[in-house]
Amino acid sequence: MTRYLPTPSPEATHDAAVFWSWCRKRELRFQQCVACGRFRHPPMPFCPHCHSGDAQWMPADGEARLFSYTVVHHAVSEKLRPYVPYNIAIVEFPRLRVRLVSNIVGLPADRLKIGMALRLVWQESDDGTPLPLFKEETPG
Ligand SMILES: [Zn+2]
User: Fold this and answer.
1) At 109, which CATH number?
2) How far is the CA of 99 from the centre of ligand 1 (A)?
3) Is residue 10 predicted with pLDDT exceeding 60?
4) Residue 19 Cα, ligand 1 centroid: separation in angstroms?
5) How many domains does the chain have?
6) How does DSSP assign 96-133, residue by residue?
């Protein structure tokens, strides 16, 4: 499998660090509010719905689909030049009602379709951190 994009930015918050520590175990998990049961992403210290600070990290539901995407044709830095054109995708987990910014791999841009079913795949970044990326879900 070829590498997609370089290492992600450094973690800005404690909650983001927890998210990435699960990723390093190749587990995609989202915060779920213990008080109201809603999921949230990106990681944050309080529930945006009920303001509770109690959360647990639950495995992502298997069902994912493409909510939106864009295709980048002009590299914003030299480091990204070898990767253009590349996509930036918003992946939705309908049951959990959360969305994740990621990339769709293994598919040319003209085959990306809003609503298409996706499957999680892990791909290591330059520093070895597994990144949660997505492929087209194929029947069977
Ligand atoms: Zn809540």
Assistant:
1) 2.40.50
2) 17
3) no
4) 18
5) 2
6) TTEEEEE-B-SS-GGG--TT-EEEEEEEE-TTS-EEEE
**Residue 83 in 3-state DSSP?**
helix
Q: Compute, in angstroms, the gap from residue 43 CA to the centroid of ligand 1.
A: 13
Q: What is the pTM of this model?
A: 0.88
**What are the pLDDT digits (tens) for 55-114?**
999 999 769 999 999 999 998 889 889 889 999 999 999 999 999 999 999 999 999 999
Q: How far is the CA of 33 from the centre of ligand 1 (A)?
A: 5
> In which domain, by residue range, is 94 found?
61-140
Residue 120 Cα to ligand 1 middle (Å): 26
Task: Check whether residue 98 and residue 115 sit in a common domain.
Answer: yes
Contact assessment for residue 68 and residue 44, using Cβ atoms and an 8 Å cutoff: no
Q: Are residues 36 and 96 in the same domain?
A: no
